[in-house]
Automatic annotation (TrEMBL):
SUPFAM superfamilies: 2Fe-2S ferredoxin-like. It comes from Burkholderia gladioli. Keywords: Oxidoreductase. The keyword Disulfide bond does not apply. Residues 12-94 form the 2Fe-2S ferredoxin-type domain. InterPro entries: 2Fe-2S-bd_N, 2Fe-2S_ferredoxin-like_sf, 2Fe-2S_ferredoxin-type. The lineage of its organism: Bacteria, Pseudomonadati, Pseudomonadota, Betaproteobacteria, Burkholderiales. This is Ferredoxin. GO terms for molecular function: iron-sulfur cluster binding; oxidoreductase activity. The keyword Cytoplasm does not apply.
């Protein structure tokens, strides 16, 4: 992962799992930002035609950033702060 602490200060990080892969992000990071840091800009949902869709508004209105978190479906990634041990599932299942 790139250096997200260029100033060299003591930055507190949390460890999360995204689709089973462990990664560390600065404490206070939104899940949406963590997805971008860890995976690059990537779709978290699919349109009815199967095309990837991704985060759009950053304030919870569009609901395009819905992911599974710790077994709960349809959590808004842009409105959720990462916490240590959080499990994030970006697999979009239109049936759920």
């Amino acid at each position: 992962m790139p250096d997200h602490n260029p100033g060299g200060t003591n930055l507190v990080e949390v460890e999360i799992r995204i689709d089973g892969q462990a990664c560390r992000v600065p404490a206070g990071t939104s899940v949406a930002a963590a997805l971008t840091i860890a995976l690059g800009v990537r779709g978290t949902r699919a349109s009815v035609r199967g095309m990837p869709r991704t985060m759009l508004c950053g304030m919870g209105i569009c609901q395009e950033c819905r992911v599974g978190i710790d077994g709960r479906a349809h959590v808004l990634a842009c409105q959720t702060t990462c916490r240590d041990g959080m499990r994030i599932d970006t697999t979009w299942n239109p049936e759920s």
